[in-house]
Specification:
Blueprint lengths: L2 H15 L11 H22 L21 H9 L4 H13 L3 E5 L7 E5 L8 H13 L4 E2 L1 H4 L7 H13 L7 H29 L3 H22 L5 H23 L6 H10 L7 H9 L10 H4 L6 H12 L25
Antiparallel strand pairs: 1-2, 2-3
Helix pairs in contact: 2-8, 2-9, 3-4, 3-10, 3-11, 4-11, 5-7, 8-9
């Protein structure tokens, strides 16, 4: 019998005696494809991440004072490297500070809030004017109820666009988010697709080994997609402008962990919200309230002292209305009422 015939006839036997190399084995074709795909995706993702704009000529200077006179929405977008709803929420707080609007308990739900328009002509910033237009259009007798407020997030697309355009005009933000995210979205999607293909491979081979390869490539693909969601959209000039604000962000976080008397909350909190750090400051705010602090950014102090639920309850209500997808929104403990004393912006 020819040698080739012997090899052909012994093929099934060889596969049976080398299960590690069989299609359903740990080193079978499905797992080899999954490993190679994972390595390729990881290389592409790392190269894209390594080439993102970075300004490394100077170290960030950590401080608890705003490094410049910049609107919280712009500063928050710079520090975060992207435009988000956090900056719109911060704009609301800044408008409260300027007394163009005020926050007060909702007339129909005592533990909720509503916005009362005080001076529709006061905002001088283009972003604030657009937001004020939205509020006045949705107000009834000068009041935006909690029910309307909780739906407002779906309607402030123009406000976000104005903020983004202003950042682009300053050459701080790239004109296209897709251009920044594509190097991550494309390989990440390929990874998830490859992982999905491992399921029929496992069924056809009658083995669970391809699922292990699918888990590997799926994990790498998911991480790559996450990197695409967090990569800054700032330009080189934007990274340079963001450096002092990231130092401000770091300084606030350090001061928060040091405890009492370290942060001027009246000044800092709109920036804290704009940078997406508000949930991390919840305990700090509670301690501030327990020490008698009443914020300047949530309403006139005489009015706040009359709020039956305590100002922190209403802050949570406002944050929940404006950021309903934030998973860290939690109600305050029952019985919280810090109306008895009044201090300045520090505690």
């Amino acid at each position: 019998m020819p040698i080739s015939d012997n090899l052909l006839s012994s093929g099934p036997y060889l596969l049976e005696t080398t299960p590690l190399l069989a299609a359903g084995g740990p080193f079978g074709a499905p797992n080899v494809i999954a490993v190679l795909a994972s390595v390729a995706i990881a290389i592409f993702a790392w190269q894209a991440w390594s080439t993102r704009p970075r300004f490394t000529d100077h170290e960030e200077s950590r401080t608890t004072q705003p490094p410049a006179d910049l609107h919280p929405a712009l500063a928050g977008a710079l520090a975060s490297g992207r435009v988000s709803d956090n900056q719109i929420e911060a704009t609301v707080l800044e408008m409260v500070r300027q007394r163009s609007i005020e926050i007060e308990p909702d007339q129909k739900q005592k533990d909720k809030v509503q916005i009362r328009i005080l001076d529709a002509d006061q905002p001088s910033n283009e972003i604030e004017r657009e937001l004020m237009t939205l509020l006045t259009d949705r107000a009834e007798n000068g009041v935006v109820s909690y029910r309307v407020l909780s739906r407002l997030r779906n309607e402030w697309g123009n406000v976000r666009s104005l903020l983004r355009n202003q950042l682009i005009e300053n050459q701080w933000l790239k004109p296209s988010e897709i251009q920044t995210r594509l190097p991550f979205v494309l390989p990440g999607s390929i990874g998830l697709l490859t992982a999905a293909m491992m399921v029929p491979a496992a069924i056809s081979t009658g083995s669970g080994w391809p699922l292990l390869g699918g888990l590997l490539v799926g994990t790498v693909g998911s991480i790559t997609l996450i990197m695409g969601n967090i990569v800054p959209h700032t330009t080189d000039e934007g990274e340079r402008a963001a450096l002092p604000w990231r130092g401000y962000r770091t300084g606030l976080i350090i001061a928060r962990d040091q405890g009492h008397g370290t942060i001027d909350l009246d000044q800092a909190f709109p920036y804290i919200v704009a940078m997406g750090m508000a949930p991390g400051f919840d305990r700090y705010l509670r301690r501030a309230g327990q020490s008698g602090y009443v914020p300047d950014w949530i309403g006139p102090r005489p009015l706040v002292l009359e709020w039956s639920e305590g100002w922190h309850t209403y802050w949570i209500a406002l944050h929940t209305a404006l950021a309903p997808t934030d998973p860290t929104n939690t109600p305050p403990p029952p019985g919280a009422n810090w109306r008895k004393s009044l201090t300045g912006g520090r505690f």
